[in-house]
Amino acid sequence: MILPRIVLAAWCVICAGNATAHEFWIEAKNYQVAPDENLIAVLKNGQEFEGVSLGYFERSIARFDIVMDGQTQAVTARLGDNPALDNAAPTDGLAIVVHETTPSFVTYKTWEKFQKFADHKDFGDWRARHAELGFSDPPFRERYTRHAKALIGVGDGQGVDAPQGLRTEFVALTNPYSDNFDGTMRVQVLFEDQPRANVQVEVFERAPDGTVEITLHRTDDTGIAAIPTQAGHTYLFDAVVLQPVGNPDKAVWDTFWAALTFAIP
């Protein structure tokens, strides 16, 4: 039915546009699947690892791929599909689902609202930097994009992640589905292919009973963070880059959001 799909797609765009201060992630129905099962996942936007599911809408998607064993396959879907991903896995191994959004904008009408966001994401004295760059007092606009990955084990789930060319991303240095996984998830945070040293990584950990614990971690001088994990728990890692745009007609700040989701068997 065409009309319901159009209405659903429009609603998803509205939800995405109003959720700038929230996390965005890829949530798999199952993070381990048999070789003959489809990879099924929803695009989610929310807080504290809970949120709304967003349908497939091409205007908001810059990239949506499945990467396995170095080979890239574009996700195929129809307008408004929810789950947005319901595709067969190309092969056995570690499936890396990659998603990037097109830019969206939000207007901040007060210092306090942006300061709360800046404090949460550990941006430091952003107001002084704002003044140094000659940006005007509120209202001003922020432009933001999302750069999400999910790790799904297909069959034996063996394989390795690698940089996937996202503007910013987590690169998993360990495979949580590997037979020799020791319980510590090591990741490197990149921005424009360069390591992000000494930056905050926010970790959302969902237990089997649905409770969520949030902890803060930092990368080292090489952009690597080592995060302890627990069996049976699902994880969302989040890290955000803030940069000046300097074009008041469009926006004065850019934010680039990296997310990584996976589960521990």
Q: Radius of gyration over alpha carbons?
A: 18 Å
The percentage of residues in β strands lies in over 45%
The low-pLDDT segments are 1-20
The average pLDDT is 91
Account of the protein in words:
The protein is mainly beta. Helices cover 12% and strands 49% of the residues. It is built from three helices and 18 strands. The protein has helices at 2-17, 111-120, 126-132; strands at 23-28, 32-33, 38-47, 50-54, 61-68, 71-74, 85-88, 93-101, 104-108, 140-154, 168-172, 184-191, 194-195, 200-206, 212-218, 224-228, 234-247, 251-263. Strands 2, 5, 6, 8, 9, 10, 14, 15, 17 and 18 form a ten-stranded mixed sheet that branches. Strand 17 (234-247) and strand 18 (251-263) form a beta hairpin. The longest helix has 16 residues, at 2-17. The N and C termini lie far apart (39 Å). Residues 1-20 have low confidence and may be disordered.
Chart the SSEs and their pairings.
Elements: H1 2-17, E1 23-28, E2 32-33, E3 38-47, E4 50-54, E5 61-68, E6 71-74, E7 85-88, E8 93-101, E9 104-108, H2 111-120, H3 126-132, E10 140-154, E11 168-172, E12 184-191, E13 194-195, E14 200-206, E15 212-218, E16 224-228, E17 234-247, E18 251-263
Parallel strand pairs: 2-10, 10-18
Antiparallel strand pairs: 1-3, 3-4, 3-7, 5-6, 5-8, 8-10, 9-10, 11-12, 12-13, 12-16, 14-15, 14-17, 17-18
